[in-house]
Amino acid sequence: MEIALHDRRRCPVGRVRVDPAARPVRVKVIADDGTQHDAFLEWERAVDDAGQLRACVACGCQRLYRRKTLPRMTPFVLVLAGAGVVAGALGYSSHPVVLAALVVLLALDVAVLFVARTQLVCYRCGTSYAELRVARYHRAWDARTAQEPDARPEDGAAQDAAPP
Length: 164
Known about the structure:
By secondary structure, the protein is of the alpha+beta class. It has helices at residues 74-89, 96-115, 143-147, 155-161, and strands at residues 2-6, 12-17, 26-30, 36-40, 64-69, 117-122, 128-130, 139-140.
Protein backbone atom coordinates (compact mmCIF):
# COMPACT_ATOMS: atom_id res chain seq x y z
CA MET A 1 0.00 0.00 0.00
CA GLU A 2 1.24 3.50 -0.80
CA ILE A 3 0.28 6.24 1.65
CA ALA A 4 0.48 9.97 0.91
CA LEU A 5 0.54 11.20 4.51
CA HIS A 6 -0.94 14.52 5.63
CA ASP A 7 -0.98 15.95 9.14
CA ARG A 8 -4.17 16.86 11.01
CA ARG A 9 -4.10 20.32 9.41
CA ARG A 10 -4.14 18.74 5.89
CA CYS A 11 -0.53 19.72 5.17
CA PRO A 12 1.37 17.09 3.14
CA VAL A 13 4.01 15.24 5.13
CA GLY A 14 5.35 12.78 2.54
CA ARG A 15 4.92 9.37 0.96
CA VAL A 16 5.59 5.90 2.30
CA ARG A 17 5.04 2.34 1.09
CA VAL A 18 3.93 -0.13 3.74
CA ASP A 19 2.85 -3.74 3.91
CA PRO A 20 -0.60 -3.66 5.54
CA ALA A 21 -0.14 -7.23 6.78
CA ALA A 22 2.96 -6.16 8.74
CA ARG A 23 1.20 -3.08 10.19
CA PRO A 24 4.32 -1.06 11.00
CA VAL A 25 3.84 1.50 13.75
CA ARG A 26 6.90 3.59 12.89
CA VAL A 27 7.77 4.34 9.25
CA LYS A 28 10.29 6.48 7.37
CA VAL A 29 8.43 9.09 5.36
CA ILE A 30 10.03 10.67 2.30
CA ALA A 31 8.96 14.30 1.85
CA ASP A 32 8.71 16.02 -1.53
CA ASP A 33 12.04 17.75 -0.95
CA GLY A 34 13.76 14.37 -0.44
CA THR A 35 14.19 14.57 3.33
CA GLN A 36 13.24 11.63 5.52
CA HIS A 37 11.64 11.61 8.92
CA ASP A 38 9.69 9.24 11.13
CA ALA A 39 5.91 9.01 11.29
CA PHE A 40 3.76 6.93 13.58
CA LEU A 41 0.75 5.04 12.25
CA GLU A 42 -2.28 3.94 14.29
CA TRP A 43 -3.30 0.46 13.12
CA GLU A 44 -5.30 -0.46 16.25
CA ARG A 45 -8.81 0.12 14.85
CA ALA A 46 -7.88 0.96 11.25
CA VAL A 47 -8.22 -2.52 9.71
CA ASP A 48 -11.38 -4.62 9.62
CA ASP A 49 -11.64 -8.41 9.98
CA ALA A 50 -11.07 -8.92 6.24
CA GLY A 51 -7.80 -6.96 6.41
CA GLN A 52 -9.20 -3.96 4.55
CA LEU A 53 -8.66 -0.38 5.66
CA ARG A 54 -11.67 1.11 7.47
CA ALA A 55 -10.07 4.10 9.23
CA CYS A 56 -7.19 6.49 8.66
CA VAL A 57 -3.89 5.29 10.11
CA ALA A 58 -2.58 8.87 10.24
CA CYS A 59 -5.32 10.54 12.32
CA GLY A 60 -7.69 7.73 13.32
CA CYS A 61 -10.74 9.19 11.54
CA GLN A 62 -13.39 6.57 10.76
CA ARG A 63 -14.58 8.47 7.66
CA LEU A 64 -12.90 7.53 4.38
CA TYR A 65 -14.11 8.01 0.83
CA ARG A 66 -13.11 6.43 -2.45
CA ARG A 67 -11.97 8.29 -5.54
CA LYS A 68 -10.69 7.32 -8.96
CA THR A 69 -7.26 8.44 -10.07
CA LEU A 70 -6.75 8.90 -13.77
CA PRO A 71 -3.44 8.43 -15.56
CA ARG A 72 -1.41 11.44 -16.67
CA MET A 73 -2.28 10.88 -20.33
CA THR A 74 -5.96 11.71 -19.69
CA PRO A 75 -5.78 15.42 -20.67
CA PHE A 76 -4.07 14.48 -23.94
CA VAL A 77 -6.81 11.96 -24.69
CA LEU A 78 -9.46 14.59 -23.93
CA VAL A 79 -7.86 17.01 -26.41
CA LEU A 80 -7.86 14.27 -29.03
CA ALA A 81 -11.50 13.52 -28.27
CA GLY A 82 -12.33 17.19 -28.80
CA ALA A 83 -10.54 17.08 -32.15
CA GLY A 84 -12.59 13.98 -33.02
CA VAL A 85 -15.82 15.81 -32.20
CA VAL A 86 -14.78 18.73 -34.41
CA ALA A 87 -13.87 16.34 -37.25
CA GLY A 88 -17.24 14.63 -36.93
CA ALA A 89 -19.13 17.94 -36.82
CA LEU A 90 -17.34 19.12 -39.99
CA GLY A 91 -18.32 15.94 -41.80
CA TYR A 92 -14.87 14.35 -42.05
CA SER A 93 -15.81 11.25 -40.03
CA SER A 94 -16.71 9.32 -43.19
CA HIS A 95 -13.12 9.54 -44.48
CA PRO A 96 -11.34 6.20 -43.79
CA VAL A 97 -8.27 7.77 -42.16
CA VAL A 98 -10.37 9.92 -39.83
CA LEU A 99 -12.64 6.99 -39.05
CA ALA A 100 -9.62 4.83 -38.14
CA ALA A 101 -8.27 7.64 -35.92
CA LEU A 102 -11.64 7.88 -34.14
CA VAL A 103 -11.64 4.13 -33.50
CA VAL A 104 -8.12 4.40 -32.03
CA LEU A 105 -9.32 7.31 -29.90
CA LEU A 106 -12.24 5.24 -28.64
CA ALA A 107 -9.81 2.47 -27.67
CA LEU A 108 -7.67 5.04 -25.79
CA ASP A 109 -10.73 6.29 -23.92
CA VAL A 110 -11.64 2.77 -22.85
CA ALA A 111 -8.02 2.10 -21.83
CA VAL A 112 -8.06 5.18 -19.58
CA LEU A 113 -11.09 3.80 -17.78
CA PHE A 114 -9.37 0.46 -17.19
CA VAL A 115 -6.13 2.06 -16.03
CA ALA A 116 -7.89 4.31 -13.50
CA ARG A 117 -7.25 3.10 -9.95
CA THR A 118 -9.28 3.56 -6.79
CA GLN A 119 -7.85 5.35 -3.78
CA LEU A 120 -9.14 5.87 -0.27
CA VAL A 121 -8.92 9.37 1.18
CA CYS A 122 -9.49 10.53 4.76
CA TYR A 123 -12.10 13.26 5.20
CA ARG A 124 -10.30 14.81 8.19
CA CYS A 125 -6.62 14.95 7.23
CA GLY A 126 -6.63 14.22 3.49
CA THR A 127 -4.23 11.27 3.68
CA SER A 128 -4.67 9.07 0.60
CA TYR A 129 -4.15 5.33 0.30
CA ALA A 130 -3.36 3.68 -3.03
CA GLU A 131 -2.64 0.14 -4.20
CA LEU A 132 -4.97 -1.58 -1.76
CA ARG A 133 -8.24 -3.50 -1.81
CA VAL A 134 -11.13 -1.15 -1.09
CA ALA A 135 -14.03 -2.44 0.96
CA ARG A 136 -17.52 -2.15 -0.51
CA TYR A 137 -18.79 0.01 2.33
CA HIS A 138 -16.58 2.95 1.31
CA ARG A 139 -18.53 5.41 -0.81
CA ALA A 140 -17.62 8.38 -3.00
CA TRP A 141 -17.09 11.81 -1.45
CA ASP A 142 -20.20 13.22 0.22
CA ALA A 143 -20.62 16.88 1.19
CA ARG A 144 -22.79 16.03 4.22
CA THR A 145 -20.19 13.63 5.59
CA ALA A 146 -17.43 16.20 5.01
CA GLN A 147 -19.34 18.72 7.17
CA GLU A 148 -19.68 16.41 10.16
CA PRO A 149 -17.56 17.54 13.15
CA ASP A 150 -15.43 14.39 13.31
CA ALA A 151 -14.62 14.61 9.60
CA ARG A 152 -13.33 18.21 9.60
CA PRO A 153 -9.65 19.14 9.85
CA GLU A 154 -8.44 20.79 13.03
CA ASP A 155 -9.38 24.44 13.62
CA GLY A 156 -5.92 25.76 12.73
CA ALA A 157 -6.29 24.49 9.17
CA ALA A 158 -9.57 26.34 8.66
CA GLN A 159 -8.03 29.58 9.97
CA ASP A 160 -4.91 29.16 7.80
CA ALA A 161 -7.03 28.56 4.70
CA ALA A 162 -9.19 31.66 5.25
CA PRO A 163 -8.07 34.73 3.29
CA PRO A 164 -6.80 37.69 5.39
